[in-house]
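Researcher: Let's try something more involved. This one mixes different molecule types, so please make sure each is placed in the same coordinate frame as the others.
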Amino acid sequence: MLSEAQAWKVLDSVPDPEVPVVSVVELGIVRELHCRADGITVVVTPTYSGCPATEVIGQTIRDSLTAAGAGRVELETRLDPAWTSDWIGEAAREKLRAYGIVPPTGKAAVGAAQPIRFVRKTLTCPRCGSNDTERLSEFGSTACKATYRCKSCLEPFEYFKPI
Amino acid sequence: MTQQDTATPEHVEYVLRLGDNALILGQRLSEWCGRAPVLEEDLALANMALDLIGQARLLLSHAGKLEGKGRDEDQMAFLRVERDYRNLTLAEVPNEDFGRTTVRNFLFSAFQVLLWEKLGRSSDAELAAIAAKSLKEARYHLTHAAEWAIRLGDGTEVSHQKAQAALDYLWPYTAELFVASPTDDAIAAAGIGPAWSELEAAWEASVLPVLAEATLVVPARTPFKSFGKFGRHSEHMGHLLATMQYMQRTYPGATW
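Model: All components are placed in one shared frame. Result:
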């Protein structure tokens, strides 16, 4: 059987299938681990309701823990509190930036009513550092990202949306 | 006591409505996949469809548990007959063009944002958790649709004409959003969801300024009524279900 600390270490090497530069632990998807006599229970909170990676993530968590000798792996999905990009830590944010994805800026909105239109954000190009960038779309290649373009180096880049 | 023992028929019906709204609009938006006017909007519409279908999975699974007959999300989504669907007619009418799709997304997501805010405090804890999650997604949908509604309405002569035609077509269906029934009264009394009278003024306060900025003229209310949320659907619903249910009807229980 694995200790809780060992299990956390195993999961910290499980990459997110869509953003493989960060682990499922760094993204805040794995919330809690509970060791049992015959195995381990993993509490996960999915990112977006329709994220197609959710099932792959669950399977990879099972496989990696089983391979590490964790015994019987139980997955428990917890919706409350809802996942927020605020759970992504500083180190993971830097990894995202180095990978070419601008990490979420500011705190995600909670509770309070929102204006219909968000204030435009000025993002810094993760490749050349220019602030002369523009949003192409609020949606991108995955549910969690928006699409931007740098008008200085002309490269497209992605922005991990605050949610 | 578990929730299965205590769920009333009204409670099941209410959660079904929420799930069916998400499922049916998600199905409509997915029809754009590979066909949108530009690549960015193709991605946006597919992303929103995914969000909605994800919400539908959570809601229909919950409705199945409340119902207590052992039906899972797939049985709820794919194996019911038309009269058993409880979505708003607004969600099922055809996409027509990018203008109508956008105006519908705007009218609907403005409603969803207000509803999810209220349902975040539902006495049904599972529903409250789903609402808190869905609210974050609905806000992005609303922002996207509101920006496009303004861009199209206050755009070229053709885009304005199409957006106005879309609003003229869709507006009569919005009356259904706020129609109360004994189900709604029971839901409000049980603290599961808000009374529609609480939402109508807030919805108008949300959509009217954007429509004005889009230079679109809001049609006068007419006696027209639609009844999708009571299970009586438009002529478009059967076609949508035929497409959506085909795989599960042909190969029951198929997975991949």
